[in-house]
Design a protein that fits this description.
With about 200 residues, the protein is of the alpha+beta class. Helices cover about 35% and strands about 20% of the residues. It has one domain: 2-Layer Sandwich (SHC Adaptor Protein), CATH 3.30.505.
């Protein structure tokens, strides 16, 4: 896990205090915030239980909108992705990623004269994280997974965690050992048996 960034704190403040330049929070605003925050916290709790989130690569970068994500990804190679909390679909995770370029056989109109160069195609999809698994919302429909790791492993086009860390390296570092692996570690090194736990 990581501490909240200044950006995260400003975003949370904007969700709490709906009146500009005010530190006052109306009861109805607090109630709406609390419902949303409980969804965010629940998702974070599930992710923390699934993964060893003390790893140096942050799994979820925080609260980030489409524009911020697109700015971060615009110079990155195809397959680079980041996980963030959606700012428009509260309580849901979003995956923003640099999509593969269109195939040469696809008919893509040339840019018009004087237009700005077109960057890599950046796409976004939503993920609902619950105790029962994850649900990916992406065209043309939705798909269910047992957990977030299974979802990320299944999408072959996602190859690099932002900024440039291979996906498999991050997932391997985050994966908690299975109970049978813990037992094998205890048998091979009895002195460290007390240090190994499984959530």
């Amino acid at each position: 896990m990581r501490v909240l960034s200044d950006h995260d704190i400003m975003f949370l403040r904007s969700k709490l205090a709906t009146q500009a330049n005010s530190d006052m929070v109306m009861a109805k605003d607090f109630e709406a915030f609390w419902q949303w925050w409980s969804l965010v916290f629940s998702a974070l709790e599930i992710i923390y239980r699934e993964w060893l989130c003390e790893a140096p690569t942050p799994v979820v970068i925080g609260f980030s909108g489409r524009k911020e994500s697109e700015a971060a990804l615009k110079e990155k190679p195809s397959g680079t992705f980041l996980l963030r909390f959606s700012t428009s679909h509260l309580g849901l995770l979003a995956i923003s990623f640099v999509a593969p370029p269109p195939s040469p056989s696809a008919s893509v109109p040339p840019p018009s004269p004087g237009s700005a160069p077109v960057g890599p195609p950046i796409q976004h999809c939503l993920v609902r994280v619950t105790e029962k698994g994850c649900e990916l919302f992406m065209e043309p429909g939705r798909k269910r997974y047992d957990d977030l790791q299974a979802l990320l492993e299944d999408i072959a086009t996602l190859t690099l965690f932002y900024p440039d860390v291979p996906k498999q390296d991050v997932l391997q570092a985050l994966r908690k050992p299975l109970p049978i692996e813990v037992e094998a570690m205890r048998q091979s090194n009895p002195a460290s048996a007390d240090e190994t736990t499984v959530a």
